[in-house]
C-alpha cells in the first residue's frame, strides 16, 4: 500500500473513531507498527494529527462526504452499476449512507422503484425522479457526512421493509466481519439489515481489510458481496462458510 493511501486511511480512522493505538492501526492496514509510527510522525509534521502515548488523535470530525466521494470513483461506479442491475422494477431498495450508495442511486434513474434511505445525497439525487417512490428516514443530521442517524432513524426502519439492502462499509475483516469507523452509524446499519430480505455489501478492493473499530455484522447476515477485485483467501473462506455469494463488478456471479 502506498504511503499516501495509508495516510488517508489513518486520518479517516482517527476522524471517525477518536484516538487509535499504533497496534490497532497496524492490524487494520496490514503493515508493521514501525511503518505506522513513521506515518504518524509525518502526519504530525504536516499538522494533521497529534501523537499521544501509543497512538494518535485528531481534533476534527468525520472526513467530509465531498472528500470521500472523490476517491476511487471508477471502482465505486463499476460496483454500483453491477448492483443496480440486480434490482427488478417494482421492488423496494434500501440504500445505506456512503459514496458507493450514492453512485448506485445514479444508476436507478428511470426505474419504477421504491427507494428508502438515510443518505441525504441519495435523496437529492433522486428527488426529481417521478418514477421513484422516495422514502427519507428521519433522524439527527450528520452534516459533514450527509446522513441521518439516531433512534428516530432506527424506529422508522422498524416500520419498513425492503426487498434489497445495499450496505456500505469501511472495512471487512478476514473473518468476514463488516466494520465501520463511526460508532453512531452502527445501530442504523443493523436496523437496515433487519428490515431487508436480501443484504448486499458494496465493498471495493480498498475495504479488504480497510478500517473500522466497530462491528456491524458477521458474514452470516450477508447474502452477497459486490466488489471490483479478488478477495483475499482468508476472507473468501469465511464468506464461503457463511454461504455468501460474491459478485464481481463487470462480470457474472461466482460462488465463493
From TrEMBL:
The keyword Thylakoid does not apply. Pfam families: DeoRC, HTH_DeoR. GO terms for molecular function: DNA binding; DNA-binding transcription factor activity. The lineage of its organism: Bacteria, Bacillati, Actinomycetota, Actinomycetes, Kitasatosporales. Residues 3-58 form the HTH deoR-type domain. This is ArsR family transcriptional regulator. It comes from Streptomyces corchorusii. InterPro entries: ArsR-like_HTH, Carb_Metab_HTH_regulators, DeoR-like_C, DeoR_HTH, NagB/RpiA_transferase-like, Tscrpt_reg_HTH_DeoR_CS, Tscrpt_reg_HTH_GntR, WH-like_DNA-bd_sf. It comes from the Bacteria. Keywords: DNA-binding, Transcription, Transcription regulation. PANTHER family: AGA OPERON TRANSCRIPTIONAL REPRESSOR-RELATED, HTH-TYPE TRANSCRIPTIONAL REGULATOR SRLR-RELATED.
Amino acid at each position: 500500500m502506498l504511503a499516501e493511501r495509508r495516510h488517508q486511511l489513518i486520518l479517516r480512522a482517527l476522524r471517525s473513531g477518536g484516538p487509535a493505538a499504533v497496534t490497532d492501526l497496524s492490524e487494520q492496514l496490514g503493515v508493521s507498527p514501525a511503518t505506522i509510527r513513521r506515518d504518524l510522525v509525518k502526519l504530525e509534521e504536516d499538522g494533521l494529527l497529534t501523537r499521544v502515548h501509543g497512538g494518535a488523535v485528531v481534533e476534527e470530525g468525520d472526513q467530509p462526504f465531498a472528500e470521500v466521494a472523490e476517491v476511487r470513483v471508477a471502482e465505486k461506479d463499476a460496483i454500483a452499476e453491477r448492483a443496480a442491475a440486480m434490482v427488478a422494477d417494482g421492488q423496494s431498495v434500501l440504500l445505506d449512507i456512503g459514496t458507493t450508495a450514492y453512485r448506485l442511486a445514479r444508476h436507478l434513474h428511470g426505474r419504477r422503484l421504491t427507494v428508502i434511505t438515510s443518505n441525504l445525497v441519495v435523496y437529492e439525487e433522486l428527488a426529481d425522479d417521478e418514477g421513484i417512490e422516495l422514502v427519507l428516514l428521519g433522524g439527527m443530521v450528520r452534516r459533514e457526512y450527509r446522513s441521518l442517524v439516531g433512534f428516530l432513524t432506527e424506529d422508522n426502519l422498524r416500520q419498513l421493509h425492503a426487498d434489497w439492502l445495499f450496505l456500505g462499509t469501511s472495512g471487512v475483516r478476514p473473518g468476514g466481519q463488516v466494520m465501520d469507523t463511526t460508532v453512531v452509524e452502527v445501530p442504523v446499519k443493523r436496523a437496515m439489515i433487519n428490515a431487508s430480505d436480501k443484504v448486499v455489501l458494496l465493498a471495493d478492493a480498498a475495504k479488504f481489510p480497510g478500517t473500522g473499530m466497530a462491528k456491524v455484522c458477521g458474514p452470516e447476515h450477508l447474502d452477497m458481496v459486490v466488489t471490483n477485485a479478488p478477495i483475499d483467501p482468508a476472507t473468501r473462506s469465511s464468506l464461503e462458510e457463511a454461504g455468501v455469494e460474491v459478485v464481481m463488478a463487470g462480470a457474472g456471479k461466482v460462488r465463493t
